[in-house]
Design a protein that fits this description.
The chain has 2 domains: 46-228, Alpha-Beta Barrel (TIM Barrel); 240-440, Hypothetical protein af1432. The two termini are 25 Å apart. It contains 20 helices and 8 strands. The protein is α/β, with parallel strands linked by helices. The protein has an 8-stranded mixed beta barrel with strand order 1-2-3-4-5-6-7-8, surrounded by 6 helices.
Length: 442
């Protein structure tokens, strides 16, 4: 069970919780219930992910990390490998790559053999004390490459890092340290020592940095907070297909006849086919194949159909790869919020899901947030959370956002404010990732 796994990984100091059913959602803590809250703050912990975009600006994979207080890099890497294996994330990655930071001594870990080699990028950073790469590190890297793993080298400009480039597929650079004057020097260095190696730029915080990395260094992968960066879209309007689907959602909320809703959907064959794809995915919960819109309506009901239509809306009029990456993040937030609110009534769980899903609707559709949610006529609790960051829904959105941030202190603050068991929140995050990967790969 995921909660038990995370309890072991992060060594909870609080009193153990009572046994729970074997589902992640059943272990979630209702933030409004103060009767069983821990008396001590949760320990410093996090399961974090950061999207890695490929050359086509779509999600190529995720950098996964864990953090627990003052643990060393080796202990964190071992915990992460165990987490990827036992949480099923290693099995549901689909086409995505898992980027795993690994200190060089762990290259010989037998647990690596249990990971799907062709979906893992091992990012090796040599020890600071190494003047040159030891022969056993190079031998281990070559052996892992032969098994199908991709190998990346952190700090490629140090003497030890330069030596490791001979066995590397990627060189990892920190975008915060890059300047125009250094770009040619970096490219020349890699051309001499690793002509076949591609570049992964990390800590890319803005679209300007992303454009610079692509133009000056021809990077293969970009990682950082720029994926969800907002711009000035005041002059942008909703695309015609989005506007049509927004109208359909409005009719659904006003209890229009089933025949009218089905007829409106069938006016756009592409929309109908996309909806059926989602409904038949592993994440929908529908146990039998659905081949018609009428059948989907019967099996799902109005409330669930509204959810899938909103997911469909977020996937329309794609404004580039970054919008696709933002959609994947929004789906993880939505599912995680729903899991954390599992003790609440079903209608409220749906509202939590929609809050998470719509939290990046402006980035996905590239229109102002007020314009996007105005067209969708969302409820006041959703609007309050998304436009003002207020209310209980905003608190659960905060922990969902914190799990994708590269700041363990932010995760700790958010978990403390919600008074959530860290193991339950981390397990919900992992389960939300699994669900999203299965849905997106449908």
């Amino acid at each position: 069970m995921l909660t038990a796994l995370f309890s072991r990984l992060f060594r909870r100091t609080a009193a153990p919780a009572a046994a729970a059913p074997a589902t992640v959602s059943a272990t979630a803590v209702d933030a409004r219930d103060t009767s069983a809250r821990p008396t001590t703050p949760p320990p410093q912990w996090s399961l974090r992910r950061e999207a890695v975009l490929g050359s086509n600006e779509r999600v190529a994979g995720y950098r996964f990390t864990v953090d627990h207080g003052g643990s060393g890099s080796g202990e964190k890497a071992e915990a992460l490998i165990q987490l990827l294996l036992e949480s099923r994330l290693a099995d549901t990655l689909g086409y995505r790559l898992a980027f795993i930071d690994l200190p060089s001594p762990l290259l010989a870990s037998p647990r690596l053999q249990e990971l799907p080699a062709k979906r893992c990028v091992l990012v090796v950073t040599p020890a600071a004390s190494d003047g040159a790469a030891p022969a056993d590190t190079l031998a281990a890297m070559h052996a892992l490459r032969a098994q199908g793993f991709l190998l990346a080298v952190g700090e490629p400009l140090t003497p030890a890092g330069t030596a490791l480039l001979a066995a590397a597929d990627l060189a990892v650079l920190d975008a915060r340290a890059l300047h125009a004057a250094d770009a040619r020097q970096l490219r020349d260095h890699l051309a001499r020592h690793a002509p076949a190696a591609r570049i992964l730029a990390r800590s890319v915080t803005s679209l300007e940095e992303a454009r610079f990395c692509r133009s000056a260094l021809d990077v293969a992968f970009l990682e950082g907070g720029f994926v969800t960066q907002r711009e000035n879209w005041d002059d942008r309007e909703l695309g015609p297909r989005v506007a049509r689907l927004a109208t359909l959602l409005g009719r659904l909320r006003k209890d229009a006849d089933t025949e009218e809703i089905v007829a409106l959907l069938k006016q756009d064959a592409a929309l109908s086919l996309r909806l059926l794809r989602y409904v038949n995915s592993a994440g929908s919960g529908v146990l039998e194949p659905v081949h018609s819109i009428e059948r989907a309506f019967i099996l799902l009901g109005r409330s669930a159909l509204q959810r899938w239509l909103l997911i469909l809306l977020c996937g329309l009029d794609d404004n580039g790869g970054r919008a696709s990456a933002a959609l994947e993040s929004a789906l993880v937030r939505a599912r995680m919020m729903e899991l954390l609110g599992a003790a609440r009534p079903r209608p409220e769980q749906e509202t939590l899901f929609l809050t998470g899903l719509l939290s990046l609707i402006d980035v996905i559709l590239q229109v102002p947030m007020e314009k996007a949610i105005g067209a969708l006529a969302v409820g006041p609790e959703i609007a309050q959370a998304l436009t003002r960051g207020e209310g209980e829904h905003a608190l659960l959105l905060e922990i969902a956002c914190a799990c994708e941030a590269a700041d363990p202190q932010q995760v700790l603050r958010a978990a403390t404010r919600l008074q959530l068991e860290p193991a339950s929140a981390a397990a919900a995050h992992a389960e939300a990732l699994n669900w999203t990967f299965q849905l997106q790969d449908a």
